[in-house]
Amino acid sequence: MSVAEKPSAGVAEKVTAIYFIVEPERKQLVELAGLADEGAVRPSIDSVFSLEDARSAFERVMASGKRGKVVLEIVRD
Questions:
Q1: pLDDT number for residue 1
Q2: 48 and 32 in one domain?
Q3: Which residue has the higher pLDDT, 12 or 41?
Q4: Long-range contacts of residues 41-46, Cβ cutoff 8 Å, at least 24 apart
Q5: Which end of the chain is more exposed for a tag (fewer CB within 10 A), N or C?
Q6: Is the torsion defined by CA of 41, 4, 29, 18 positive or negative?
Q7: Is 43 helix (H, G, I), strand (E, B) or coil?
Q8: 50, 60: one domain
Q9: 6 and 34 inside one domain
Q10: Does residue 1 sit in the same domain as residue 38?
Q11: Strand, coil or helix: 73
């Protein structure tokens, strides 16, 4: 199943499925950023990879058993 497309007819027959598109709103994103800065909201991070290890990060995204987001860390000089 995917969050990026409507469920197939076979899946939709077995589960209750709702497909929707989220539109980003600046005000909400600023509020979420503030909550994250305060520590009130913390993302669930499975693993962090350097940009050089992007292939390994992609492989982790495609693997089963993740608990949280896979993050690419970009270090700026």
A1: 47
A2: no
A3: 41
A4: 43/68, 43/69, 44/68, 44/69, 45/69, 45/71, 46/70
A5: C
A6: negative
A7: coil
A8: yes
A9: yes
A10: yes
A11: strand
Q: Which residues contact 57 (CB under 8 A, 6 or more apart)?
A: 47, 49, 70, 71, 72
Domain identity same for 33 and 57: no
Strand partners, 73: 50
Global pTM? 0.53
| 66 and 33, same domain (yes or no) | no
Nearest CA-CA partner of 70 in 52, 29, 50, 38: 50
**Residue 74 corresponds to which tokens in the numbers above?**
């970009």
- Whole domain around residue 68: which residue ranges? 43-77
pLDDT tens figures, 51-64? 999 999 999 999 99
In 3D space, the residue among 8, 31, 5, 34 whose CA is nearest the CA of residue 20 turns out to be 5
